[in-house]
Structures are given as C-alpha cells and as structure tokens.
Amino acid sequence: MRIVRYALDGRVGRGVLVGDAVRELRDSEPGAEVGRLSELTLLAPCEPRTIVCAGSNYAGQIIEKGRVWPRQPSLFLKSPNAIAGPGAEIRRPAEVRRLEYEGELAVVIGRTARDVPADRAADFVLGYTCANDVTADDWRADGQWARAKSADTFCPLGPWIETEIPDPSALRITTRLGGQVVQSAPTSDMVFGVDALLAFVTRWFTLEPGDVLLTGSPAGVGPMLPGDPVEVEISGIGTLHNTVAAGEAPEGRSGKTVLS
C-alpha cells in the first residue's frame, strides 16, 4: 500500500495510491476515489514530531571519507520545520556556499516505540519513503548541526509511504543531480540496519506514529546549486523529485541585516 498526503481544492487529506488514482484512506483500506495523481499536489507523506538521523552509516561513505569504523550509531536530529514535500523547492540560504544532497531511506513509525527489541522492530514500522538529508556544509563549523541540518526545506520526504517492504536491507538507493547519478548503493551497505537503529534510538527517544528515522547516506555526497534538479530513488518505493532554489538574503526577509 502506498499512503499519500495531498492537497486538492484547498484541503489536505490522506489517501492510498491505486494505479494513478488516489483513494480515501478508511480504516487502513482504500475508499472512494479522490482524484487522479495528476490532479492533486502531493505533500510530505507524514508530519513527524521527531526526526532522528543516523550519520556515517554506510560502509562506502566511511571508506570514502577515511573515518573510523563506528562502534555504535551516531545520531543527530533534524527539526520538523525542515520538512518539504515532493516537487517542493529546496531553498539554499543566501549565506551558504556549499549546500549538499544526501539521499537516504526514511523509516516512518507506525505505533509508539520505546525500548523496541531489534527482533520486533518491524512491528513498529508503518513503512518507508525517500528522503534527502540536505546539509549546509558551511554551518557544520558551528560545533553542532542545528543550522546545518534543520533550516527550512532541508528535509524533503516522499513521494509516499510504501508499507509493503519485506526487507529494507534489500533495496537500492540512487541519487541523481541534473540527471546524472551521483550516489548509488544497496541498503545492505548500512553498518547498522533498520532493526538495529530502531532498537538503539528507542532506548532514549520515544517515537510516535508519523515520526521519522533517517538511516544514513551512501558515498558520493556532494554540492547542489540553485536550479539543480535532484532526485532520490529507492527501489520498491519510488522517486523523490525536488529542485534547488536560491533563498533570499536575510535583509530581504526582515529589513535587517542578520549576522551569520
């Protein structure tokens, strides 16, 4: 089942994609047809309260960057204001010189998860979607990653939640920039798989339905420029399309100069 959030005629709803038609979601089953996919606007498929992310979680990236092999997952957070939907613009702040793409598999939580055993992790997963963990590389120098990871539009998700993924370690993630492949790796290249990550995260974070766990990005992370189209495709799920846009200078938003 592919679960979508959509906007149509001024209202927002949740539905199920059946072929190229969106149907109402009623008691976890498709209901009446809402409209054709081409007639509505897809939104980010969930509205997370918490977005927990795993860093340096692909063997290929660890080798590429010359990093030390992790003994446990490295976690950070993204703020919900960063959420953007499929087709939405990723806005590069005017102060940022290097804005990076990071294609990732996103896990959407289906029920309250706390102290989840790894062998029961699948029971707490609603499904999976594509994510772009957009990063302002300049701002990593802050000493913590709040700005670098959580500016507006820095977490595109979509195009929908795929609930029928029997093995999240048997997928392939591909990122394209301007139509050129810049990342390609199997999800089996994760150092810590979905089950291990969910068990680790929920030792300290209670995750609620709709919350999101980002599972790390493969080798090949690189810069995006205004005007660049970027796609994150995951086999068995779909393709998330976005375009980079130049953000306004701070004085253009508020009338005052903001120091960075």
From TrEMBL:
What's a GO biological-process term for it? carboxylic acid metabolic process
Metal-binding found in the keyword field: yes
The record's section on Pfam families has: FAA_hydrolase, Rv2993c-like_N
| Superkingdom in the source lineage | Bacteria
Q: Which organism is it from?
A: Nocardia tenerifensis
Identification of the protein by name: 2-keto-4-pentenoate hydratase/2-oxohepta-3-ene-1,7-dioic acid hydratase in catechol pathway
Swiss-Prot/TrEMBL keywords: Metal-binding
Which family is this protein grouped under?
Answer: Belongs to the FAH family.
